[in-house]
């Protein structure tokens, strides 16, 4: 039995019993190993430490009202991990290996899957790193792919309430032909100064513009941006944006409820014309945006005056959460039930 305070779980690291690991050596993936250590032993010249050969993912498993455990769109995550690996010349983990490892990690840590009703879930963190020793700049010849898990509470304690964003133009997250489209740690390192400054200035998250000419919206911190205008769900298309699986799902749900979906460049000047705006990602599903303050000009665009999320964002959020928790019909077959 576990003695976990499900109601007050933070969104953070939580020690569980096991993680699973697989090493790539001599040109092939080895056996899946189970470990109860929280530590990795590796060579000090490993390429992940020096040259940023590192990619990760984020998958969630939910305990439904029926007691079943459902994993949300793990195969999309597996394919994205493959693109990330390929993008920085790492060994590419097969989709089947990814699946085997996440289901093994869930089953071994089943008692840490939060019960239904607390807005909590089991967060799975697949991690791929170059472990081979190199000093010259080149890809490693050895890799570690691992999955660790932990129960997490809602990303924002206040729940589904609008938060304020800052839009900036003096830091870039990713270059136009860089690595913004893949989930690699380097993008996060590049975003930290802007994110922490934003927090210190009172904003839970920061919107990055496209780095080529700064006229367009790129990412909303570690999440995708979307706006609602009339009958349309509008989300930026840019080579430096990470294709969010939550966004992909919301676009489908938007179509399902009869909205037009526009995947295109979104000019900063267009922010004024949206009735609702939000950020989306696995951690929070949707973070409704209350207002966006331009750090350069002080201009404020407000989406919520009453402290509530807009009706369309709310509808999409409830629909997606419902599918994840098994209370809404999973008509697109996004969930895999853990057997
Ligand atoms: C992970 C991530 C997202 C969200 O992707 P999901 O698949 O929805 O979790 C968005 N932007 C960036 C930069 C990310 O790293």
Question: What does the secondary structure layout of this molecule look like, with pairings?
Answer:
Layout: E1 19-25, E2 28-29, E3 33-35, H1 47-50, E4 54-56, E5 59-63, E6 69-72, H2 74-87, H3 95-108, E7 121-130, E8 143-152, E9 163-168, H4 185-200, E10 205-209, E11 217-220, E12 224-229, E13 232-236, H5 245-256, E14 260-264, E15 276-281, E16 285-294, E17 300-302, H6 311-325, E18 335-337
Parallel strand pairs: 9-10, 9-16, 13-14
Antiparallel strand pairs: 1-2, 1-3, 1-8, 4-7, 5-6, 5-7, 6-18, 7-8, 10-11, 12-13, 12-15, 15-16, 16-17
Helix pairs in contact: 2-3, 5-6
Description:
The protein is α+β, with helices and mostly antiparallel strands. The chain folds into two domains: 6-152, Aminotransferase class 4, branched-chain amino acid transferase, N-terminal domain (D-amino Acid Aminotransferase, Chain A, domain 1, 2-Layer Sandwich); 163-325, Alpha-Beta Barrel (D-amino Acid Aminotransferase, Chain A, domain 2), CATH 3.20.10. The protein has helices spanning 47-50, 74-87, 95-108, 185-200, 245-256, 311-325; strands at residues 19-25, 28-29, 33-35, 54-56, 59-63, 69-72, 121-130, 143-152, 163-168, 205-209, 217-220, 224-229, 232-236, 260-264, 276-281, 285-294, 300-302, 335-337. Strands 1, 2, 3, 4, 5, 6, 7, 8 and 18 form a nine-stranded antiparallel sheet that branches. Strands 9, 10, 11, 12, 13, 14, 15, 16 and 17 form a nine-stranded mixed sheet that branches. The protein is globular. The two termini are 21 Å apart. The model has no long low-confidence stretch (mean pLDDT 96).
- Tally of discrete structural domains: 2
CA distance, first residue to last residue: 21 Å
What's the Cα radius of gyration? Answer: 20 Å
Provide the residue-averaged pLDDT: 96
Shape: globular
Structural class: alpha+beta
Order of helices and strands: EEEHEEEHHEEEHEEEEHEEEEHE
């Amino acid at each position: 039995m576990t003695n976990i305070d499900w109601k007050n779980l933070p969104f953070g690291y939580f020690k569980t019993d096991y993680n699973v690991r697989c090493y790539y050596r001599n040109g092939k993936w080895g056996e899946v190993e189970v470990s109860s250590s929280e530590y990795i032993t590796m060579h000090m010249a490993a390429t992940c430490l020096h040259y940023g050969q590192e990619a990760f993912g984020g998958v969630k498993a939910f305990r439904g009202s029926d007691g079943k455990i459902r994993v949300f769109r793990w195969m999309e995550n597996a394919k994205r991990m493959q693109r990330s690996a390929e993008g920085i010349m790492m060994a590419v983990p097969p989709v089947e290996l990814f699946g085997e490892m996440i289901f093994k990690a869930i089953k071994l840590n089943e008692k840490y899957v939060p019960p239904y009703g607390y807005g909590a879930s089991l967060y799975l963190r697949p991690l791929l790193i170059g472990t081979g020793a190199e000093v010259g700049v080149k890809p490693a010849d050895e890799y570690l792919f691992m999955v660790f898990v932990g129960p997490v509470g809602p990303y924002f304690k206040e729940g589904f309430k609008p938060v304020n964003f800052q839009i900036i133009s003096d830091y870039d997250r990713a270059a136009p032909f860089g690595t913004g489209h893949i989930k690699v740690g380097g993008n996060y390192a590049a975003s930290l100064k802007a994110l922490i400054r934003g927090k210190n200035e009172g904003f839970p998250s920061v919107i990055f513009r496209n780095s080529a000419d700064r006229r367009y919206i790129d990412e909303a911190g570690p999440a995708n941006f979307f706006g609602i205008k009339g009958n349309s769900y509008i989300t930026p298309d840019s080579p430096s944006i990470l294709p969010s699986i939550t966004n992909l799902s919301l676009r489908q749900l938007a179509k399902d409820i009869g909205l037009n979906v526009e995947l295109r460049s979104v000019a900063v000047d267009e922010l004024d014309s949206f009735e609702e705006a939000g950020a989306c990602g696995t951690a929070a599903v949707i973070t409704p945006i209350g207002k966006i303050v331009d750090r350069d000009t002080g201009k404020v665009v407000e989406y919520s005056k009453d402290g509530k999320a807009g009706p369309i964002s709310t509808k999409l959020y409830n629909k997606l959460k419902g599918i994840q928790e098994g209370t809404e019909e999973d008509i697109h077959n996004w969930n895999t039930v853990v057997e």
